[in-house]
Design a protein that fits this description.
The complex is a heterodimer of chains A (94) and B (423). Chain A is mainly beta and 94 residues long. Chain A has one helix spanning 36-44; strands spanning 3-6, 10-13, 18-22, 52-58, 66-72, 78-82, 89-92. The radius of gyration of chain A is 15 Å and the shape is globular. Chain B folds into 2 domains: 13-89 and 91-116 and 190-260 and 352-419, FAD/NAD(P)-binding domain (3-Layer(bba) Sandwich); 125-187 and 263-349, D-Amino Acid Oxidase, Chain A, domain 2 (2-Layer Sandwich), CATH 3.30.9.10. In chain B, strands 1, 2, 8, 9, 10, 11, 17 and 18 form an 8-stranded mixed sheet that branches. The chains are: A mainly beta (94), B alpha/beta (423). The A-B interface holds A 1-2, 13-15, 18-19, 22, 36-37, 39-41, 43-50, 53, 55, 71, 73-76 and B 247, 249-250, 258-263, 307-312, 314, 316-318, 351, 407-410. The structure holds flavin-adenine dinucleotide and zinc ion (ZN).
Chain lengths: 94, 423
């Protein structure tokens, strides 16, 4: 089980959190101007990284805040925790 | 090597006694280490069930035998050897039911075809409903199955109890049972036997299985692929077929295109062996758990994926705890049984819970992925249609709908949940 550090509540069990997927580019500003392929790429394509992955988590069973983590998807080690507002690093293991 | 493998043998009492005196086993194949040739007609990347079935049907249906199956580890050590062996074809949508039905029919004769017992056991697969809405959904799926010519029954709680007296159908149960679907031809197939059976057959045909050989890159010129770079040097081929499950995204990167795939841990676990007590496979969508009893007596339990992407082939304990506690609510008699082992695979999950089988933006490069949590049942069918796609450079009628461009066209095949749990 992952032990996740919420930026507000500290280290809590994974069961208190929802996973929000990889941190991606912004939603396209003018989706009407995208081709079907470009739109499909935004909707469905994923980097699906094996290694260092920046991802979103939601402390749904706690303070109900979103924040970002940097996790190694191969070793499961969580190396960085970011504040969502300014992407400031709250914790850095390195 | 060949003579040790006792090729072309059909089993007879005599050959069994004779082999009893020799030091050979099917495992010799999985341990065999071929040095690859420089050139092949087709290279299949990935020595799981899907890759080996593809090579088998390329030979059987299309007369192509100059093939290498290149595997980074040992054959059948991926999801093929880690799954919970459930096979069925009672999917909701026509596209998927026809594909899985084709596969279920192939299991029927696969032991004869391979001359190796893959132990297809039609023990029946139940999908339970725990609310009125779920009961209506299950009944709808049963009807859809019948319209597609697939055997499917809707059973009441009392009828369910006749098949498995130990199930708790009390209306006050934690997970009350409103009904279930039953596919009688569904059941289990021994996963290791599938890997060994295909490997042994490929060996007999003269197809090279190259193990401990990681493919590191694709050799592509002008958007046409003609080879691979591996641990054991470059190998060239007219056509390259990728069947690597959770590692698919890496190959899309090599080909400079994108995939809508995420790789997740998927766990399963077994109990200590107990006397025969549960004949069919029982699954429940709502509690996200399923159970069957293996021939040796262990209860085999599985759940849904771990929510985060992960390549560690390891999942979180809460998934095991949740699914096991639900199974114990359904079968209180199991509460004292001890767990023996747990493990996880690396599954390739697509947005509509359906596979991607077909051409890629790179010429002569073909991909077969996205089977996620439920591709074992499709092993022969997947190989069959993928081989057709490779040999003819266009899909078989059964995998036309499963192309990569469905995500741009919007023609998704939404099997999520609709299919009666993902296995
Ligand atoms: C716990 C669990 C339970 C499951 N239960 C069921 C079930 O009950 N019923 C069902 O139908 N399905 C089930 N599945 C899903 C099923 O196991 C898979 O969909 C199916 O086995 C996939 O087969 P495959 O041959 O594509 O993949 P795999 O068997 O994973 O084969 C892919 C191979 O590619 C190799 N590879 C990867 N990268 C490279 C590289 N760079 N070079 C060379 N080789 C490479 C890997 O080593 C691997 O051997 C389950 C899966 C898991 C994990
Ligand atoms: Zn919190």
């Amino acid at each position: 089980m992952l032990l996740i550090q919420c930026i507000y509540c500290g280290e809590r069990d994974e069961t208190e959190f929802d996973y929000g997927g990889e941190v991606r580019e912004q939603r396209p500003l003018e989706p009407d101007n995208l081709s079907d392929n470009e739109w499909a790429e935004f909707l469905f394509s994923r980097a699906n990284i094996n290694g260092i992955h920046v991802e979103q988590w939601f402390h749904s069973g706690g303070c109900r805040q979103w924040f970002n983590l940097e996790r190694n998807t191969y070793t499961n080690e969580i190396t960085k925790v970011f504040n969502l507002k300014n992407q400031q690093i709250i914790r850095d293991k390195n | 090597m060949k003579s040790r493998l006792n090729t072309n043998n059909t089993y007879s009492l005599f050959s069994i006694i004779k082999s009893g005196f020799k030091k050979n086993s099917v495992l010799d194949i999985s341990m065999s280490n071929k040095t690859p040739k420089k050139n092949y007609d087709v290279i299949v990347i990935g020595g799981g069930g899907h890759g080996m079935a593809t090579a088998y049907y390329l030979a059987k249906n299309h007369g192509i035998t100059n093939i290498a199956v290149v595997e980074k580890g040992l054959i059948g050590r991926g999801n093929t050897g880690r799954n919970t062996q459930v096979v069925r074809s009672n999917y909701l949508w026509t596209e998927s039911s026809l594909l899985y039905e084709h596969s279920l029919k192939l299991w029927n004769n696969l032991s004869q075809d391979l001359n190796f017992n893959v132990m297809y056991t039609k023990r029946g697969v139940f999908s339970l409903a725990h609310s009125y809405q779920e009961a209506r959904d299950v009944a709808r799926r049963v009807t859809a199955n019948k319209l597609n010519g697939i055997d499917s029954l809707y059973l009441t709680p009392k009828e369910i109890k006749e098949y498995m007296p130990i199930i708790n159908i009390s209306p006050t149960a934690r997970y009350p049972i409103f009904g279930a679907s039953l596919q009688k031809r569904g059941g289990t197939v021994h996963h290791d036997a599938v890997a060994w059976g295909f490997a042994r057959r490929l060996n007999q045909i003269g197809i090279d299985i190259v193990q401990n050989c990681e493919v590191r890159n694709l050799i592509i010129k002008n958007n046409i692929v003609n080879g691979i770079s591996t641990d054991k040097g470059d190998i060239f081929a007219n056509k390259i077929a990728v069947a690597v499950a959770g590692s698919s995204t890496r190959f899309a990167e090599m080909g400079n295109f994108k995939l809508p795939i995420e790789s997740h841990p998927l766990q399963a676990w077994v109990s200590e062996p107990i006397k025969p007590i549960l004949n069919p496979v029982v699954m429940s969508n709502a509690v996200h758990a399923y159970v069957s009893q293996a021939e040796k007596g262990e209860l085999v339990i599985g759940a849904g994926i771990d929510k985060y992407i992960g390549y560690s082939q390891r999942g979180s304990f809460n998934v095991i705890e949740n699914a096991t506690s639900a199974i114990i609510e359904l079968f209180p008699a199991f509460s004292k049984v001890k767990l023996l082992r747990t493990w996880a695979g690396l599954v390739d999950v697509s947005p509509d819970a359906c596979p991607i089988i077909g051409n890629t933006p790179v010429k002569n490069l073909y991909i077969n992925c996205g089977w996620g949590t439920g591709g074992f049942k499709a092993t022969p069918g997947s190989g069959y249609v993928f081989a057709h796609t490779i040999a003819n450079d266009k899909p078989h009628i059964l995998n036309e709908a499963f192309s990569l461009d469905r995500f741009a066209s919007g023609k998704l095949i939404d099997e999520h949940g609709a299919a009666g749990v993902a296995h």
